[in-house]
Amino acid sequence: MPKMTINDSIKLIAGSFVLISIVLGYYVNSYFFLFTAFVAINLIQSSLTKWCLMSKILKKIGVKEGGDSCSI
Predict the structure, then answer these.
(1) Domains held by the chain: number
(2) Is residue 12 situated within a structural domain?
(3) pTM, whole model, 2 decimals?
(4) Per-residue pLDDT of the chain (72 residues; tens, 9 = 90+)
(5) Which three-class secondary structure state does DSSP give residue 68?
(6) Range of the domain at 23
(7) DSSP letters of 6-56?
(8) I need a labelling partner for 20 at 20 to 30 A (CA). Which of 26, 31, 36, 60 fits?
């Protein structure tokens, strides 16, 4: 099994945060939906500016760079 790359890790973290915040927003408090919006805003910002704090954090903890994206 190949090791996770930064690209794979960011997708996994963002997807997990979205799913968790949706569940918490539905069952606990609707304010958790704001966290879903925060994740979306960060993904949009990083696509426009090409700067991503999570990639910097993952790089510092030793996650391998690279990886294929979903696009062909």
Answers:
(1) 1
(2) yes
(3) 0.82
(4) 668 899 999 999 999 999 999 999 999 999 999 999 999 999 999 999 999 999 999 999 999 887 655 543
(5) coil
(6) 6-60
(7) HHHHHHHHHHHHHHHHHHHHHHT-GGGHHHHHHHHHHHHHHHHHS--HHHH
(8) 60
